[in-house]
Amino acid sequence: LINNDTMSAWQAYIDESLIASGHVAYGAIIGLDGSLWARSEGLYLITAEEINAIVNAFTEQGLATLRAQGCFIAQEKYMVVKGDNRSLYITRGQGGAAAVHTKTCIILGVYTYGMAVGSCTSAVESLADYLIESGY
Predict the structure, then answer these.
(1) Which residues contact 129 (CB under 8 A, 6 or more apart)?
(2) pLDDT (0 to 100) of residue 42
(3) Tens digits of per-residue pLDDT, 70-126?
(4) Confidence of residue 6 (pLDDT cuts 50, 70, 90)
(5) What is the DSSP string of 87-136?
(6) Interatomic CA distance for residues 49 and 64, integer angstroms
(7) CB count in 10 Å sphere of residue 92
(8) Is 74 left (phi over 0), alpha (psi -120 to 50) or beta?
(9) Distance set, CA 87 to CA 31, 54, 100, 109, 114 (Å)
(10) Would you state the pLDDT for residue 9?
């Protein structure tokens, strides 16, 4: 699930681009193979099964499964608002998350009560765009 060598190299993206923005409460970078490249506090309980469901959400069948069963992040159930081959938007009460697919990974940002969905989405999308432009 976790590759510690890879994780340390990607942690700054989580800390500086997502969490430091003030618009993302928790974040993770997930490899398309289901490996966890980096994560913040708050996502220590995310499971391999949950990660694989997020990775598979960028396929038609995987998205259909999430729409029917919900998307779980660290044992919390979220409902799918929108999904396509680039982005996944989910909600839970007054919080939610955005996940964006790049060439090699998925950027996940979770927002909580008092945070604006649009600001979280923008932070996640911006990091994803930067990584795509950098070849990732």
Answers:
(1) none
(2) 87
(3) 999 999 999 999 999 999 999 999 999 999 999 999 999 999 999 999 999 999 999
(4) low
(5) EEEEEETTEEEEEEE-SSEEEEEEE-TTS-HHHHHHHHHHHHHHHHHTT-
(6) 16
(7) 17
(8) left
(9) 15, 11, 4, 12, 22
(10) 80
Whether residue 1 is predicted with pLDDT greater than 60 in this model: the reply is: no
Contact 135, 102 (CB under 8 A): no
80 DSSP β-pair partners: 90
φ, ψ for residue 52, nearest 5 deg:
-65, -35
| pTM of the entire predicted model | 0.92
- Placement of tokens 């993302």 in the chain: 24
State which amino acid sits at residue 80: V
- What amino acid occupies position 44? Y
- End-to-end distance of the chain based on CA atoms, in angstroms? 20
